[in-house]
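User: Can you fold this complex?
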Amino acid sequence: MTTPDRDGALADQLLRLTHRVHRIQKRHLHQADLGITPAQSRLLRTLAHFGGPPRMADLAERLEVVPRAVTTLVDGLEASGAVRRVPDPANRRVIRIELTDTGRATLHVLHDARRAAAREILAPLTDEQREVLGELLDTLIDGAPLPEC
Amino acid sequence: MTTPDRDGALADQLLRLTHRVHRIQKRHLHQADLGITPAQSRLLRTLAHFGGPPRMADLAERLEVVPRAVTTLVDGLEASGAVRRVPDPANRRVIRIELTDTGRATLHVLHDARRAAAREILAPLTDEQREVLGELLDTLIDGAPLPEC
DNA sequence: GTTCATTGTGAGTATAGGTAACAATGAGCT
DNA sequence: AGCTCATTGTTACCTATACTCACAATGAAC
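Assistant: Here's the predicted assembly.
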């Protein structure tokens, strides 16, 4: 038997990798010294992928967290001056989250930190292996079933 | 240019995957209803990979967390009856962590939950792709530089 | 035998996220 | 109009993870 429990082994590897990725990202963020936490960085990154300023509910859905979590993250980012809460004139219940100029500058630094972290994590892989991994991760992420079902 | 920023893109994908893996594992663990948290599950899994009962310091090193964190995890697992603190007669400073029979049973259930989680995460991949991913993850994990340097 | 290193833990903190209740608002219906 | 119900963000609280720092007990080295 060449693969006694391939999926179980993959689970183990994924969990170990997950832990490592988180630790390394945290270290690089700390070194960047922007006062941005990993979850805040994730929100900023997501923010940049929207066309216009999204509603907080949009962010919660995209980040796959509960709306309450977004409130906390935006609180922190607003205190850092990276984002701004802007009330939506068309619907007074919604608040749109805008990236400030400071936030855009922060995003650049974060991007560099993220890339450095990636280089550290991916160090054992050749260029070809990174290409293959990228394709596999694309497939994994694009093929993910709808969140929360 | 075919790869404008491959490492940066990989970082994004890894971070998204990391979040997803963590959420899905948490859900499956909760469904298993063993009262075991993700970090405790990680410790149990690690425990099974040692030959004999390891010292808490060994666990901290292997898990790549600070020793204080191991204390908390063992506290919870001992309360669940999954492990036992056994003083080392050869060195009265060290405490060895033994898996109980209950713990061994728990491990089996956890293994199934982990495999189910893996199947859910890996659903978009074919068998061949899973093999390739497994090899890449092997390389990534084995080639990791020594912890904390 | 005094000094220094190892080992685990108490106390306190920060981050991440979850639930439940709620106030403000908008939408639909009669 | 009014009444009901869904949406949106937030207040208040709880849990899990992991960190630092200080410390007590022990062992090792000189």
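Chain A touches chain B through 52 residues (CB under 8 Å). The radius of gyration of chain A is 18 Å.
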